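WARN  no MSA supplied for this record, continuing single-sequence
INFO  ligand: nicotinamide-adenine-dinucleotide
INFO  echoing inputs
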Amino acid sequence: MKLLITGAGGTVGTMLRQGLRDSLAAEKRLLDINPIAPGIGEEFVLGDVTDLAVVRQAISDCDACVHLAAIPVESTFEKILQTNIRGTWAVFEAARLEGCPRVVFASSNHATGYYPIHHRISPSDPPRPDSYYGASKLFGEVLGSLYHDKYGVRVACIRIGSALPRPVDERHLSTWLSPGDLTRLVTACLTSPDLGYAIVYGASANRRGWWDLEPGRRLGYEPVDDAEVFAAEVEPGPPDEFQGGTFTRPEATP
Ligand SMILES: NC(=O)c1ccc[n+]([C@@H]2O[C@H](COP(=O)([O-])OP(=O)(O)OC[C@H]3O[C@@H](n4cnc5c(N)ncnc54)[C@H](O)[C@@H]3O)[C@@H](O)[C@H]2O)c1
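INFO  complex generated
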């Protein structure tokens, strides 16, 4: 498999590249606006994901793309529009034009951040974005649906919880996606013969989890980690009212 990873130099990209090295025999092309030192089997392309010509060249001859490049937090509408919305359009459009059959899109739990904590939700529940950032991820999901229905691109949208080496605060006990489970979930999305269009939550098998992981399981994802083993070590915090945590506070949006 030849794989394009956009935003490959960030937190998720770095964890994923390490994980995929062992689990999936894939030749990787890495696109990022900041320099990355490529490893064995990796080719680096310096470029902006919002530039369609750049993404077309990077995605050409790839069997799949994992699209991570984004502003991963709340920001001004103009910045979110440019990187997250235009960038995601460029990836889907490049996939269509270059015949790349499968895109795994890094969506976010902030697409549904206004659900109260402890409320168990699944991807079929209505969106409740908590930020311009969360709304941009919903745009990406909807665009993926369009590119699937109209052009047959296979699309998996992963609403990532908190992809971190280990949980550091109380919220993460519900939202954590361990490096191993991140790799397992992305691998399932990249290889499942059953994938047409899917939205799945990206979390480990956390005892305190809020999200239905069944849609990911249907693609072959079997989470093995549980944030609970770190419960005694995380920073206790005041309980958040909503699943999106600090993103839901009005002052979080500029
Ligand atoms: N880390 C998490 O827990 C988490 C949770 C939910 C969703 N996500 C999503 O996963 C993806 C990766 O998140 P992350 O935490 O690794 O973020 P990050 O900021 O660490 O990495 C993003 C990468 O994208 C690159 N990038 C930014 N703008 C670019 C552009 N215009 N062109 C090309 N490259 C560009 C950056 O240089 C960086 O290497 C994002 O889409 C984010 O929204 C992450």
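The longest strand covers residues 102-108.
INFO  checksum written, moving to next record
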